[in-house]
């Protein structure tokens, strides 16, 4: 049986800019996968190739082994896109009914509206919805056809805490029925909370692929920085649990999952430190440690 | 398939009727212009011993103006707005066949044009005593609806070339002067010389001739010649629309 979703050596260039560089992966039917990466990493480009919205410069994107551009294949997936719009002068239920009619075996409209928590807004024009409600409407349109594969590109962007909670629950409910879900996010917590597998993408490359536990163990959680009076001898860092380091003149930056151990050892080695700062790494920094750069 | 088509057409209609400004502009403006040009000496013969009245002639002219206007505006504006709001992106990822999308728009526009015609006919009947045989009303409406196909192509072309903010101005700037130059408001022989030579070759001229001919006005060309002109325009405008569509999608979906 073909994979639900597959990229085979897929590359995408926009002019001279390489948005995606020879990326391959396969996603089995029934799995919930998150694609994680900072802004501009190539997540949306990957999704657009899989949806047939963009053509790969090289390689292939397949859904159940078929070209995503054919109508027959499109009946098997639903999508929530980052930059797209819907008619503003239709009511929520009217729009859901319309998108249902595109699919062979859609879910009942009332069930879809309830699933995304828009019952009270069912008769509201799209233009009068809040940002979070509009996001949930897009999700309703993506699932109303009861598709086998669901693509969600940054689905929780712009949502408040409550909206996000309802939304993540709705995704889990939908995925529970043996559906394949691929979502993109730049929040590690979100990927961790939802997915059973995380693909990490950065600068157009697939740099990690594993369970949330595996990914988390490889991503640095903390950032230590300090100034040393004399230029730091690189040997002073030998043997420390540091996933990435940056020593530029007097300023030293270290990425680690074990800040206590690193600091204790640095003090023991009598490394001269002033302006010492320890804080949680943001995602960009965490990725630096994954790519081994810094 | 039938259900998708019905749902898509229904959605098109709902969107349309919820823009009162467009409905007013399409239904109301022709009546206002008719009042200016058609009500003066409405029941007088158009020329000495003519069988048709001034009111009937002006109504036929305005009927052509109305149908052409609905086609160019509804397609031009709708597409420009949809592109501006990136509605085309989600639709392209959805299983809606493009043919159904287009067909629903055509049916909606044709129905809207028919409503606009009926409103104009009723108005002309009661204010200018325009009386036509039953089959003449039907011929007039039928010819104009069928003959409006080139203007769908023109509307599509505008829709893919012009942005949502510029669309109303650009379409008006092209459509309104063309309507004047085609003899819709003022007879061609009263236009300035350089436009008189151009008039027969403008797309609205053979179109309005179809209407004039239906009510018994002696037109310059035979109906068959007018149809050929309109066919040529249809080919030209749809080629333009296809080029504009490809240009638009090549940028976004390559």
Average pLDDT confidence of chain A is 89
Q: What's the total number of strands of chain A?
A: 13
So, the CATH homologous superfamily of the largest domain in chain A? P-loop containing nucleotide triphosphate hydrolases
Let me know the largest β-sheet of chain A.
Answer: 6 strands, mixed
Q: Determine the N-to-C terminus distance of chain A.
A: 42 Å
The number of helical segments of chain A is 10
Average pLDDT level of chain B: 93
Uncertain runs of chain B are none
Summing up helix and strand content along with how strands pair, one would put the structural category of chain A as alpha/beta
Total count of domains of chain B = 1
Structural class of chain B: mainly alpha
Written account of the structure:
The complex is a heterodimer of chains A (294) and B (254). Chain A is α/β, with parallel strands linked by helices and 294 residues long. Chain A is 31% helix and 29% strand. In chain A, a hairpin with a 2-residue loop joins strand 1 (5-14) and strand 2 (17-27). In chain A, helix 3 (92-100) packs across helix 4. Chain B has 11 helices and no strands. In chain B, helix 3 packs antiparallel against helix 5 (98-128) and helix 3 packs across helix 10. The two termini of chain B are 28 Å apart. The mean pLDDT of chain B is 93. Chains A and B meet through helix 3 of A and helix 1 and helix 4 of B.
Supply database-style keywords.
heterodimer; A: 294 residues; alpha/beta; Rossmann fold; Alpha-Beta Plaits; 6-stranded mixed beta sheet; elongated; B: 254 residues; mainly alpha
Secondary structure topology:
The complex is a heterodimer of chains A (294) and B (254).
Chain A: E1 5-14, E2 17-27, E3 32-36, H1 43-51, E4 58-63, H2 71-74, E5 77-80, H3 92-100, H4 109-115, H5 131-143, E6 149-153, H6 161-175, E7 180-185, H7 188-194, E8 197-202, E9 205-210, H8 212-218, E10 222-227, E11 242-248, E12 251-256, H9 259-268, E13 274-280, H10 283-291
Helix pairs in contact in A: 3-4
Chain B: H1 2-17, H2 20-38, H3 54-84, H4 87-93, H5 98-128, H6 134-147, H7 149-161, H8 167-181, H9 193-198, H10 204-214, H11 223-253
Helix pairs in contact in B: 1-5, 2-3, 2-5, 3-5, 3-6, 3-7, 3-8, 3-10, 6-10, 7-11, 10-11
